[in-house]
What we know:
160 residues, 0% strand, mainly alpha
Amino acid sequence: MDAQTIDLVKRTAQRSLAYAAGAGAALIVLQLLSKIPFLGFAFSCLYLFAILGAAFGIGYLVTPKMTGLPYGQSKAILALWIGIGVALPLAVALVVAGLVGSLYDIFTDYYSLFGKVFAVLGSIFSGLVGGLLIGTALAWLGSYFALDRNPNIQPAERPF
């Protein structure tokens, strides 16, 4: 990675921070609502769809605001760098939402001591891995659609 792409990832992460914080707040509410007996399953499904929609939506909304894109890269590669920048704050939001849900379960004595440790570690691991992998893929897709709609972005041309 050169300095321009690192700068693009940093600027994208900074621009998507407010969207990721809003998505994180919504995910915390859905996480707590999923603890309601009988109705919790519906909120758990909504939580899953909210994660997927947040990654795609943030990528789609942040991409048109990015200026000074590195020259000579295709739309797919530019969308990948933007997707990585979006996935970083979204992964933090997923970790926080997962920790809030796990801590709620711990304080209601839902787990044993051994289960409490693995609940916290599992929520951190699943938030990081899921947020980075799935978040990058869906944010890439959203930013690719946004770049595809923008007529000012030209794909890299072959030198020969």
